[in-house]
Amino acid sequence: MIKKILLIAFVAFSSIAMVGQTTVTGTVKDANTGETLPGANIKISGKSVGTTTDFDGNFILKVTDNPPFTIEVSMLGFQTAMIEITKNNQKIDVKLNENETSLDEIVVSASRTPERIMESPVTVERMDTRAIKNTSSPSFYDGLENLKGVDVNTNSLTFKSVNTRGFATFANTRFMQLVDGMDNSSPALNFALGNLLGMSELDVKTVELLPGASSALYGANAFNGIMFMTSKNPFEDQGISVSIKGGATTQQAAGNNLYTDVNLRMAYAFSEKFAAKATVAFLDGTEWFATDYRNNREGTALDGDYIPGDRNSDRNYDGLNVYGDEVSTNIKGVAETLEGLGIIPNGASALIPSENISRTGYDERDLMNYEAKSVKFGGSLNYRPFGDDRLEVIWNSKFGVGNTIYQGTNRYNIQDFFMEQHKLEFRGKNFFVRGYLTSEDAGNSYDTRFAAININRAWKDDNTWFGQYVGAYLQSTLAGANSDQAHAVARQTAESGRFLPGSPEFQEAFDRVTADPDLITGSKFQDNTKLYHADANYNLQDHIDWAEFQVGGSYRLYSLNSNGSIFTDYDGPINYDEFGIYTQMQKKFLEDDRLKLTASVRYDKAQNFDGNFSPRVSLAYAAGEDKNQNFRMSFQTGFRNPTTQDQYIGLNAGRAYLVGSAPDNLDRYQTQPLIVSGNGQNFTGSPTIAVSGRDAYENAFSASSVTAFAAGQIAAPEAVNVDLVRPERVTAAEIGYRGLVNAGDQRITIDLSVYYNNYEDFIANKNVIVPFYGQTDLSDTAPIGPGGAPVPLALAALASDDFTVFQTYTNSAADINSYGASIGVNTKIFNGFNLGLNYTYAKFDFDQATDPDFEAGFNTPEHKVKIQFGKADLFENFGFNINARWQDEYLWESTFMDATIDARTVIDAQINYAVPSIKSVFKLGGANLTGQEYLSAPGVGAIGSQYYLAWTINN
How many CB atoms lie within 10 A of CB 625? Predict the structure, then answer.
């Protein structure tokens, strides 16, 4: 029996050993230069398993198939070669022809179907693995800024916000970022935190970016544009790759600081049916310090403007990157209250000036953890049941944890933020079905403004501080001091007991406040929001041959869960959903299919809003003998639904209360008890009052009219009933040209586009003033005027500082248009040097008079110029690349601060050297080499220089 078993085992093993004996070896070279091509892909046509060339361009392919069969040899930037294999141990030499231009590259995003960039009906920007390896920026994500028409706004070292075609913001809910088909946005914030929790650089295969509205195919949030990051498939890109990058950042405020960026990718195809991969990325460095201490007292609106003065010259000083000094009050009113309580003698308030005084704040650098950190892990299991690409089942998981800084209404220290995504996808040649979950945990994140406010209140509450200030001022005045001397003594007295940064008392209060989610006493924000998403697409090309039809749809469920620290989810998660369906038809006409018509329409419906249709139609015509002169035009509408915050936020931001406008949110939100003046208590009957969200929408004054009323410019402020927010719409038209032009021996590629957008129901924030008592229509009065004349209670409230500021979420009635153009020119000069030049123009128009309280926040320079110059093979194994960017000054508007951003010129450069014997590439580079620091927006840290040395193995 044992002998029989051994015989059977031997026969079985021999059979296995006999399988897979077909071996193909060879070398892949550039047909033009004769140089070998490392990283070329070799696989059997229609099958999964293959291999890649090594650093010397050599490969060994072992397969189970018996000859004859055909292999495909491909590489980005080159035309695919098909080679017939007729025998075992065949040795071949393959020469690949380079694509004539980058416009020959294939994209999928423009129409959800593969097509040359040259023939795309809309504008497409693209970055592939060659561009990533050649970028002069510290990372591929930073390198996106060199693409035509693309803006990258730097919030912090690890948080960059990508945008196209205007209306930029760090909370960029108008731009969608997809990673392997998954929306990479934070479920609670509705925007991506840059690449903090995105993709490892070693795993990026392509990045495709569509500027402008794409709602017809990709839904509500693809409004300003959409970016697709696609990772490498473990069937096609196998092996172990490592990247080790180290360097330093330099900034005047922060000094010189080291940073480290390490990436690892492992992928293996165990058979033609099963493959897997894993990626790990680790980054550690120091953020850009924010040290703008200019005065910016904002008045009745959220957004501020720089004004003269500092803490020594302005007693109501409010430094931009100083927090806690937002707490301010009129000391005349304090004196009147103290007088009413009998704490100071009757008539003593007459000696106190009617002047606003602010508490002394803390600098951001005393409150912020400036350690930049990101740890990312990704993994996928890929199964092809038929051993080819007819069907692939993919399980993909991504995990990320990190620290960064986010600037919204306030500056937030995002610390130990965790996000995970899990996707199951079924994909074939003509379809995909996928579902994924995104979950996040805010970790130990906190609001630096409230950290300062409540550290101040930890050593002395506001009532005591201002009371002591008034008492000391009064005593000094009675002792003969002048006003300046009395104010100096008053602040010194009120400041007694202050916790100094670095002291044990300060640290104990800081730790306690940043761990407390109650904004009355703490600054931590909590969030465990989840997003559930499913979408599908089917191409009917196997069933309909006269045109290409696609159908698809998506469903999304939000589950908001901040425990009341961001949203009004005090009693449990708030759930709401949305869905969409779409179809697209693409038809080619004329001889050689020179004319291509693409038409699509999508219907979307969100729980709180009416449904929206988004149509798109485009024409593309290929002229010229080789179809290398391509003209395109498109017309489309887009829309975006109000975000989770637009609908359900309920947050005290310090300068204002933020309340979303979902119908069920208005009554759910109440402010904490607010102090009423002594005069006001005669009408409220209470020393405190709580204001509801509904008051902000139905009983408020416009902020601009209150400012004008206080200045005596109008007789009475304007009462406003703020409309509840509804979806925003855009109608977009674009024409463009892509072509290859021969100028003597030079071949020049040109890509030109011109667009015009018209917006309707532009989603906007409106700042309003809510009086503690009285109706804003001035219908209720009290006999408190001269001689007992009736005075509207709401005006009495304004006179006694008995009001608060709310930020509401609504739509602007303003007529808003944006338009622009871009042109890119690329060629080779001086025997192979790459030269690229692009220019972007962007502008918007609207009539401020139609909506005085509306801030458009276009936040985009009118003119931008970008230049690229380099050569990948200057000499053997050595290359270089230089990028330069210039943009003119522009106005940045936000709830944090309004200011003009200066024009700037930024130069990045890198040199690289390959060592094939150890399968390595070394790259030395730097960003902002001039050292001239610049700002992306007011309030952020000034961006200095960044230098790096990278060692990449087997990529």
Answer: 6
Decide: helix, strand or coil at residue 404.
Answer: strand
- Which residue in 720, 730, 804 sits closest to 766, CA to CA? 720
Query: Would you say 676 and 694 are in contact if contact means Cβ atoms under 8 Å apart?
Result: no
Cα 148 to chain center, whole Å?
18
The CA–CA distances, whole Å, from 554 to 114, 585, 620, 644 equal: 21, 18, 28, 18
* Token reading at 26: 């060879």
Q: In sequence order, which residues have a C-beta less than 8 Å from that of residue 688 and are 6 or more positions away? A: 673, 674, 675, 676
Rounded to whole angstroms, how far apart are CA atoms 524 and 517? 4
Q: Which helix (H) or strand (E) holds 329?
A: strand 328-330
φ/ψ region of 795 (left if φ > 0, alpha if ψ in -120 to 50, else beta) reads alpha
- Which single residue is written with the structure tokens 């299991």? 381
Q: Given the DSSP bridges, would you call strands 657-659 and 650-652 parallel, antiparallel or unpaired?
A: antiparallel
Mean pLDDT for 517-521 is 91
Q: What is the pLDDT of residue 817?
A: 95
CB 320 within 8 A of CB 294: yes
Which range, 120-129, 193-202, 457-466, has the best average confidence (pLDDT)?
A: 457-466
Residue range 252-281, pLDDT digits in tens? 999 999 999 999 999 999 999 999 999 999
Contact, 870 vs 908, CB < 8 A? no
Dist CA 661 CA 640 (whole Å): 16
pLDDT exceeds cutoff 70 at 658: yes
Overall average pLDDT of the 807-811 stretch? 95
DSSP state of 725: P
Q: Can you tell me the distance from the alpha carbon of 729 to that of 363, in angstroms, rounded to the nearest whole number?
A: 41
Q: How far apart are CA 436 and CA 391, in angstroms?
A: 19
Tell me which of 550 and 7 has the higher pLDDT.
Answer: 550
Say what the pTM is.
Answer: 0.89
Q: Which residues, other chains included, contact 381 with Cβ-Cβ below 8 Å and sequence gap of 6+? A: 274, 276, 394, 395
Retrieve residue 230's tokens: 């696609």
3-state secondary structure of 731: strand
In 3-state terms the chain splits into helix, strand, coil percentages (rounded to 5) of 15, 45, 40
- Please give the Cα distance from 499 to 513 (Å, whole number): 13
pLDDT grade for 497, boundaries at 50, 70 and 90 = very high
Angle at 504 between CA 499 and CA 509, to 5 degrees: 60
Contact 305, 336 (CB under 8 A): no
State the angle between helix axes of 448-459 and 462-478 in degrees (0 to 180), rounded to the nearest 10: 60
Model pLDDT for residues 742-792, shown as the tens digit of each residue: 887 788 999 999 999 999 999 999 999 999 999 999 999 999 989 999 999
Question: What is the C-alpha to C-alpha distance for residues 955 and 643, in angstroms, rounded to an integer?
Answer: 40
Look over the chain and give the mean of its residue pLDDT values, rounded to a whole number: 91
Pairing of strands 50-52, 41-44: antiparallel
3-state secondary structure of 342: coil
pLDDT (tens digit, 9 = 90+) per residue, 881-912?
999 999 999 999 998 999 999 999 999 999 99
235 DSSP β-pair partners? none
How buried is 461 (Cβ within 10 angstroms: 0-12 exposed, 13-18 middle, 19+ buried)?
exposed
Amino acid letter at 229? M
For the segment 427-451, what is each residue's pLDDT rounded down to a tens digit? 998 999 999 999 999 999 999 999 9
Give me 760's structure tokens: 């309707």
CA–CA distance, 315 with 312 (Å, rounded to integer): 7
